[in-house]
Design goal:
This protein has helices spanning 8-11, 36-39; strands at residues 17-22, 26-32, 51-54, 68-72, 76-80, 88-92, 97-98, 101-110. The protein has 117 residues and is mainly beta. The strands form 2 sheets. The protein has a 6-stranded antiparallel β-barrel. The chain has a two-stranded antiparallel sheet with strand order 4-5.
Length: 117
């Protein structure tokens, strides 16, 4: 059931999986509670960032570009991982847009187990 955008800021928390209904399509992403300045180069539209969403679970194994994973494959290597593949988008609550598309509403598909504020 689609909810009105006016409720999103109070209803959606970090890690929640959200379906956003747009004018001509939909977007599915996880709420990402992080300073927009850190990810502004990864935003679809940097001006629209009241709420941030990403295509990979922020409460899962997502890491920043500078983070390294210690690989155990017989050799010891530290390899950079994942941030380049994350698509960030910003929702403007004032303009009611995601990128340049008008938002009609949203639906919480899954709530995060852990609530952070």
């Amino acid at each position: 059931m689609m909810k009105k955008l006016d409720k999103m800021a109070e209803d959606v928390f970090e890690g929640d999986l959200i379906l956003i209904y747009l004018r001509a399509s939909t977007y599915i992403g996880y709420m990402w509670k992080i300073d927009a300045e850190i990810v502004k180069d990864r935003l679809l539209n940097p001006e629209e960032k009241d709420l941030l969403f990403c295509s990979i679970d922020p409460l899962g194994n997502t890491r920043m570009k500078e983070d390294y994973a210690h690989m155990k494959d017989g050799t010891s290597k530290d390899l950079p991982i994942i941030r380049d593949k994350i698509q960030f988008v910003g929702v403007s609550l004032e303009r009611r847009t995601l990128g340049n598309e008008e938002i009609r509403g949203y639906y919480v598909m899954s709530r995060a187990r852990r609530r952070t504020e």
